[in-house]
Amino acid sequence: MRRIQRFRSDTRGIEGLPVRLVIALVVGVASLSVMMNMISGISGLAVIELDVHPEPEVVGPGEQTIEVSVVDPDGQTVSDATVIARGGSARLDGVETATTDQNGVAELRLTPELRPNQGDGTIEFEVKPPAGSEYADERGNTALLVVSG
């Protein structure tokens, strides 16, 4: 009986409880965050990044036809991808688009222009992968170099 009274009168047990709960909650949330990042990183490994290879790689100002190959990291071409060309430091009138054929090549008719006193510039490419594929275009792609003269 003496033992029961001692337990009832002891208030020290509750003092550390809220602090311990807060610490457990913070550690739990941090652990959950790390695990979620690991899971999203694993699914990110399944995505295959695409790049473009313009041919020719260097052109002068004026109208011309550029063949752009869409390739995966292994160098294999990708068909049914949409290639979008936009002016970078070189100018284009609007945006040009084309879809790659069964050989993974898109043909774009471009008319790049340079500003006065500008020696060179770039045309930027973006790729929209085929629908339902594991491909992605999240990083920068190879640009087309436009050189005056």
From TrEMBL:
<protein>
    <submittedName>
        <fullName>Carboxypeptidase regulatory-like domain-containing protein</fullName>
    </submittedName>
</protein>
<keyword id="KW-0645">Protease</keyword>
<dbReference type="InterPro" id="IPR008964">
    <property type="entry name" value="Invasin/intimin_cell_adhesion"/>
</dbReference>
<keyword id="KW-0472">Membrane</keyword>
<keyword id="KW-0812">Transmembrane</keyword>
<keyword id="KW-0121">Carboxypeptidase</keyword>
<keyword id="KW-1133">Transmembrane helix</keyword>
<dbReference type="InterPro" id="IPR013783">
    <property type="entry name" value="Ig-like_fold"/>
</dbReference>
<keyword id="KW-0378">Hydrolase</keyword>
<feature type="transmembrane region" description="Helical">
    <location>
        <begin position="21"/>
        <end position="48"/>
    </location>
</feature>
<dbReference type="Pfam" id="PF24107">
    <property type="entry name" value="DUF7382"/>
</dbReference>
<feature type="domain" description="DUF7382">
    <location>
        <begin position="45"/>
        <end position="108"/>
    </location>
</feature>
<dbReference type="GO" id="GO:0004180">
    <property type="term" value="F:carboxypeptidase activity"/>
</dbReference>
<dbReference type="InterPro" id="IPR055806">
    <property type="entry name" value="DUF7382"/>
</dbReference>
